[in-house]
Fold this protein.
Amino acid sequence: MDLEKTIQNLRKNEFEVSYFETAAEAAAYLDSRIDGKTVGFGDSETLRVMGVPELLATHNTVYNPIGVHDDDEFDDIAKKTQLTDVFLTSVNGISETGEMVNIDGTGNRVAGSIFGHEKVYMVASTKKIEPTLEEAIFRARNVAAPTNTKKFGYATPCAKTGKCYDCHAPRRICNVMAIYMQKMNGMDVEVVLVGEELGF
Ligand code: SF4
């Protein structure tokens, strides 16, 4: 994994980039940068493990659907995340060529990450960096998504083997895939890379 090349190419694609060795340092950075804002979260194991929602909730208005299992409650919170000042999520894959990839089932994470905010933070472990965009997409489909279905206990074929079958299972979580090719117009996007293993 070539971290310097990845950072250079993400910057060439107009993403701001910061890097921290540890999750604790990255969480403290986010806590220092986001204050007095409305804040929405996309589903993210990375941010959950880092404790970022709890940290920000002490001095921001936070809408966080992570870990909410009731469908109506989830929808209500997820809708509120779409027009907040700040939105935070992770990504499923990053390429050394400077793109990022996300797969989503309900769409709230992808929708919130591309429009409607002053600033979006994409927080991800450097273990998600792959040499090419094709390999980042492969990672999203054959590492991140199967690990997620297994975590949720969904009856999808990938949950058993860790490999994507492009299934039509009722709990398929791969309904939309976003490729972040360059920063969206009218919105700041910062990629926060963490040198620890985090998320899927
Ligand atoms: S399409 Fe189906 S088999 Fe493939 S990763 Fe998604 S849920 Fe699993």
Notes: The pocket of iron/sulfur cluster is lined by residues 141, 145-146, 149, 156-158, 164-167, 169, 172-174 (CB under 6 Å). Residues 58 and 144 are 30 Å apart (CA to CA). The chain has a mean pLDDT of 96.
